[in-house]
């Protein structure tokens, strides 16, 4: 099994091609990881890898960091979710956003992700809620909501923004953001999403 690759990014398209000591490895990755890699063309990087072996194929799935890889592996434990679907889900949002939706039981938010229907969203929550591993060292995910996140959520909801949009937006904010900064960014991001 390949755990990670260290090499030079040669090409990025639907997949990434990484040269490791003269051997080109084709890596399947989320749109976020591919986008990050695009800015690093020709540079040396480390890509965390999951090796998926089937009778007819050997595929490498690559991740920007261990947090994304751990979420991918967790998604594979869900009945009906294979590697391609897990990658589509990761392409629909950053790991912190997806983890928060799972921990909050937000089936509506999850079903807005690519290739996820209502039943799959419910299955993901049923299988993974409270069991996610997010940190690099493999410790369980904490409910990542600081006091300022709670205040920002409350302020934006009181201003009439939709709950689902507010939750998705707040999940992307740093934990130490101030209330004023969070609400200001909320105005910019969520305008047009009033209920």
Automatic annotation (TrEMBL):
Family affiliation? Belongs to the RuvA family.
* InterPro entries assigned: DNA_helicase_Holl-junc_RuvA_I (IPR013849), Hlx-hairpin-Hlx_DNA-bd_motif (IPR003583), NA-bd_OB-fold (IPR012340), RuvA (IPR000085), RuvA_2-like (IPR010994), RuvA_C (IPR011114)
Q: What does this protein do?
A: The RuvA-RuvB-RuvC complex processes Holliday junction (HJ) DNA during genetic recombination and DNA repair, while the RuvA-RuvB complex plays an important role in the rescue of blocked DNA replication forks via replication fork reversal (RFR). RuvA specifically binds to HJ cruciform DNA, conferring on it an open structure. The RuvB hexamer acts as an ATP-dependent pump, pulling dsDNA into and through the RuvAB complex. HJ branch migration allows RuvC to scan DNA until it finds its consensus sequence, where it cleaves and resolves the cruciform DNA.
* UniProt entry tagged with the keyword Protein biosynthesis: no
Q: How does it assemble?
A: Homotetramer. Forms an RuvA(8)-RuvB(12)-Holliday junction (HJ) complex. HJ DNA is sandwiched between 2 RuvA tetramers; dsDNA enters through RuvA and exits via RuvB. An RuvB hexamer assembles on each DNA strand where it exits the tetramer. Each RuvB hexamer is contacted by two RuvA subunits (via domain III) on 2 adjacent RuvB subunits; this complex drives branch migration. In the full resolvosome a probable DNA-RuvA(4)-RuvB(12)-RuvC(2) complex forms which resolves the HJ.
Q: Where is this region: Domain I?
A: 1-64
The family database entries (Pfam families) matched by this protein are listed as: HHH_5 (PF14520), RuvA_C (PF07499), RuvA_N (PF01330)
Q: Where is this region: Domain III?
A: 146-195
Domain Helix-hairpin-helix DNA-binding motif class residues, every copy: 73-92, 108-127
Q: Which Gene3D superfamilies match?
A: 5' to 3' exonuclease, C-terminal subdomain (1.10.150.20), Nucleic acid-binding proteins (2.40.50.140)
Q: Which GO terms describe its molecular function?
A: ATP binding; four-way junction DNA binding; four-way junction helicase activity
Superkingdom, taxonomy of origin:
Bacteria
The record's annotation in SMART domains points to: HhH1
GO BP: any one term = DNA recombination
What is the gene called? ruvA
Q: What is known of its domains?
A: Has three domains with a flexible linker between the domains II and III and assumes an 'L' shape. Domain III is highly mobile and contacts RuvB.
**The name this protein goes by in its record:** Holliday junction branch migration complex subunit RuvA
Q: Which NCBIfam families match?
A: ruvA
Q: Which UniProt keywords apply?
A: ATP-binding, Cytoplasm, DNA damage, DNA recombination, DNA repair, DNA-binding, Helicase, Hydrolase, Nucleotide-binding
